[in-house]
Amino acid sequence: MRRLNGIAVRARGVVLAYGSFVAIRSSTFEIPFGKLTAVIGPNGSGKSTLLAAIAGLIEPASGEVEVAVPQHRISFVMQSTKIPDSLPVSVGEVVAMGRYASRGALGRLTAADRRAVADAMERLGITDLARRHIGKLSGGQRQRALVAQGLAQDHDILLLDEPLTGIDLNTAEAIDEVIHHEIEEGCAVVMTTHDLTEAAVAGHVILVSGQVLASGPPEEVLTAENLREAYGPHLLHPGEDRIFLDDPAHFPVQE
Q: Per residue in 83-96, pLDDT tens?
């Protein structure tokens, strides 16, 4: 495995587009192993597109994204994952799908695969839901199942698209515990978020607004100047000891 001197992802002048629509203009950034990298920016800023490019789901229009591990070692928990309620699939089966990256969808699960699935469910506190129909879960339970699916996959990079949005406190705490354990194991964890507080406590931050505006430690990235450029001046309110955003999920508001 190429560790790129402790760097999981290195992008140089990367441009990401869907046909003629450019989602991310020329951007350069790095993502380290052993840290939580928070990708923050307003709606439509390109956060999810950035994760998709790291996962190898989008080819750059120009520039390059160099990843230190093969694609099957990247686990991507997408925010938009849709599992039809009518699909006759249990929580255990959904989590087991995380083994497809190495086993294949038609491959029979080995004892090691089953242990990985059981461990992932235990870490998210959903072992007792293994036989439950996925359509019968609450929003928080479903999010736990999807994160467990990501953990069940053998990985060195874990991509989480807004994993803490719209869930209950217990689920948020369970996912937060998982994130910290992954970091301690040396994994690169990349999480998109709208929450400035979540980004401020990350080990590394990427600020996005149609382009990577800044990348590095939170105290260097989350400055009033950078946030003003990303969100527009009307949403930004510097306080005595911190900066507030009226609506961090909002599209940028210009003067």
A: 666 778 999 999 99
Task: Kindly list the distances between the CA atom of residue 71 and the CA atoms of 153, 225, 229, 230, 231, in Å, as whole numbers in the listed order.
Answer: 12, 36, 33, 31, 33
Answering whether pTM is above 0.70, one says yes
Q: In what order do the strands lie in the sheet with 204-208?
A: 74-77, 157-161, 188-193, 36-40, 204-208, 212-216
Tell me the pLDDT band of 1, cut-offs 50, 70 and 90: very low
d(CA 59, CA 199): 27
CATH of 1-69+159-169+191-255, one of 3.30.450.20, 3.90.800.10, 1.10.10.10, 3.40.50.300: 3.40.50.300
Element (H, E) at 169: helix 169-184
Rounded Cα–Cα distance for residues 222 and 233 (Å) = 14
What residue type is 225 in one-letter code?
A: E
